[in-house]
Amino acid sequence: MKNNFKKNVIYNTLLIFFNISYPLITSPYISRVLRIKDIGELNFANSLVTMFIVATSLGIPVYGLREVAKNKNNKSKLQKIFSELMITHFVFILIGILIYLLLVFNLNILKENKIIYIVYIFNLGLSLFTLDWFYMGLEEYEYITKRSILVKGISIILMFIFVKTEQSYIIFAIISVFGNTFNNLFNLFNSFKFVKFKLILPNIKKIFYKTRFFYMQSILISSYQYLDQIILNILSNSTELAYYTRARQISGIVSSVVLSLVKTLIPRVSFYFENDFEKYKEVLNFSFNTTCFLAFPATVGLFILSEEISLLLGGQNFILTNLPLKVMSFLVIIVSMSVFLDTQISIPSSYEKNTFYSSLMVAFSTFILNFQLMSKYGAIGGAVSILFGECVGVVTQIILIKKEKLYLDFLNLKIFKYILSSIIMGIIIYPMEKYIDNLFLSMGIVTIVGAITYGICIDFFSKKVFKENSELDYLKKLICKSKV
Questions:
Q1: In the prediction, which pLDDT does 404 show?
Q2: C-alpha–C-alpha distance, residues 262 and 278, integer Å
Q3: In angstroms, how far is CA 145 from the centroid of its own chain?
Q4: What is the per-residue pLDDT for 329?
Q5: How far apart are CA 179 and CA 182, in angstroms?
Q6: pTM strictly above 0.85
């Protein structure tokens, strides 16, 4: 089951870019064709089903990924893990479907458009076969990427063909569900290449005990991801909410690109922690350095180009997005550190409670600050709240990791070469952004000059100050010549 690391990075990065492109292609078209009211109904139905999917998942996606990665070379144990988790998940999905149907047929707000909610129930039922946790554990990134691109590509074509009028919103719902349905059916049939499903009686109580922190964390994250938007809409107005959600979307896209390598390494980190701790430390150091190498300049670049990016993606109506976006640009660093600590240290070492407690601190501190800042400062107040909350979460993680005496040697003075290189890059490109009026010319020149400046600075600090090869040398050598 060995997979080429270079291919995994390429496929995972390709998948991230495609997932980013998909809403950028579909959203503008749907916004022009369908009525705002119907789009709102579709979004609400999708959100409701997503909450049920999270509630019935029991944290299996994260727990399952870790266990598959640790046991991928033990076929009998792998089959047992797969079968137990599938049966347990099936039981809770059945319960979820029953509760969901009771709501749809008894709540007036849902009964009025129950056909939409009945269509979306297929997403809940077939979430049993959302097996990306299984394929990521096996490092089958090629399969995940090809499957996703194929199904979403077909969905885009069907949308352009069949969604033509305001009355097409049910068709759009069916096409959306079609994509998930075929994704999951592909997952099911492809899984037979790796394991054979066995009808066994799982110890659900034991499984729930093992997944409890993953489960509580998924519920917690799902809650505060939507709660801040609800509070902002109540305390301020829909315009501020539009600026806030757009800024979060943009910073989230940049964070996803930065974290593409970290997410690719999740199964290997889990495997090496269990089987080769020296290799684990080597991969961990590489992962942290690469995360810093990408996150710090991305933050500075996003901060400086926030106005241009806001104009490019939203036009003049969204120009004020640049203010909360400047604040949220720092989320790229903080979120990257948070995900790194979660997926590379706490979860592989079976201290997922660290992740849960840090998420709890994020939710609590963000919730308190939202009421203090959103009513007065709107979207900017919301941006400050979430940034502060995420910082609290990272500090909490580090304290807990240190308390458990887990590996933290990657935190050293070398981090300053990324900080200093990014600051120097920012000092050089900031005047260019101010004095070049053309939007595309400004973004192009700033990006190119910034990348060159940053590369030169990293090379200088690495070789002259720390007396080592730069990340550019290391990345080239690792990707081209070796398998982790």
A1: 86
A2: 18
A3: 15
A4: 95
A5: 6
A6: no
